Automatic annotation (TrEMBL):
It comes from Heyndrickxia shackletonii. Transmembrane segments: none annotated. The keyword Cell cycle does not apply. GO terms for molecular function: kinase activity. The keyword Transport applies. GO terms for cellular component: cytoplasm. InterPro entries: Dup_hybrid_motif, PTS_EIIA_1_perm, PTS_EIIA_component. Gene3D superfamilies: Glucose Permease (Domain IIA). Keywords: Kinase, Phosphotransferase system, Sugar transport, Transferase, Transport. This is PTS glucose transporter subunit IIA. Residues 29-133 form the PTS EIIA type-1 domain. GO terms for biological process: phosphoenolpyruvate-dependent sugar phosphotransferase system. It is found in: Cytoplasm.
């Protein structure tokens, strides 16, 4: 009778940007495709900046501005890595709008991206979104079957307690 009373609501992680949804296994970088950093999904951006996929706290902003880490309220750690081989751009093409320690709301703009610049100067614009603490085994993850992601509307990952 009380079993469902204390059951936690699953965490829904939304698309951080508009674009084509890609399974993490198809990302052309073994660090992501082999899930070395954790479970995840990717998106091939079509337009727009990177927005927070959840309500949470910024726990990391890469010095090279190409990645941001968010701690969701349930303890899920989400890394959004903008493009591949983008660390070499040394921040060019990115305008960060948040700082470590900032509380963010779902849909809040995190990083403005010059996709034309990234597309010309990086190996790919594909943007993996990884659960960096998924190896803990505390949750199970379900990934969208959608082929197109709409920022703030498409649920990309659902994280449920085991």
């Amino acid at each position: 009778m009380f079993k469902n009373l204390f059951k936690k609501t699953p965490l829904e992680i939304y698309a951080p940007v508009n674009g084509r949804v890609i399974p993490i296994e198809e990302v052309p970088d073994p660090v992501f495709s082999q899930k070395m950093m954790g479970e995840g999904i990717a998106i091939m951006p079509s337009n727009g900046g990177i927005h927070s996929p959840v309500e949470g706290t910024i726990i990391q902003v890469a010095p090279t501005k190409h990645a941001v880490g968010i701690l969701a309220k349930d303890g899920t750690e989400i890394l959004i890595h903008i493009g591949l081989e983008t660390v070499a751009l040394e921040g060019e093409g990115f305008t960060v709008r948040v700082n470590e320690g900032d509380r963010v709301s779902m849909g809040q703009l995190l990083i403005e991206v010059d996709w034309e610049y990234i597309g010309t100067h990086a190996s790919s614009t594909v943007t993996p979104m990884v659960i960096t603490n998924s190896h803990d085994g505390n949750k199970q993850y379900t990934f969208t079957e959608e082929k197109e992601g709409i920022q703030g509307q498409t649920v990309m990952i659902t994280a449920s307690g085991k």
